[in-house]
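Per reviewer request, we include the raw input and output of the structure prediction for the construct analysed in the revised manuscript.
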Amino acid sequence: MHAGRLRSLSFDDSGDLLAACGGDGSVRVWHAPTGEFRSRFSSPSGWARAVAVDGPGNRVAVGAGTGDIAVRRLGTDRFTSHLSGHTGRILMLGFMSNEDRLVSAAADGTVRVWSLGEQRQIAKVRVDASLHCAALEPTTGEVLVGSAAGVVALGIIDT
């Protein structure tokens, strides 16, 4: 259980693995059907604000309030990717169906697509608003972002 409020939740494709980040700044991972605790870690860049589990449940991405993102391999419990570029807190992370691709949205008004293999940004879309929330459809790459002005749909082109 987390101390403080939950900030983000994510399941793997099977629904067996659940990751959560909470007000205590940590990420915790459970086997959802049994409630068995699997792992706890902190973002290497500060307070965890957003979390995403990849489809097979092998990796967890965590976004920090600093705008940095780290990806941790669960079997080895080590970080395999460190991504920087956002200047506002991370609001949403999601693995695309091509699991080498990670999508992030941040309060700085940008949505970015990252190549985890190359550990670099491969696409960026700027929204003319301060973002408050976002969601990813991993198969199509469609991203919905929400701001004080309403909801804007963005299409991530084949990357």
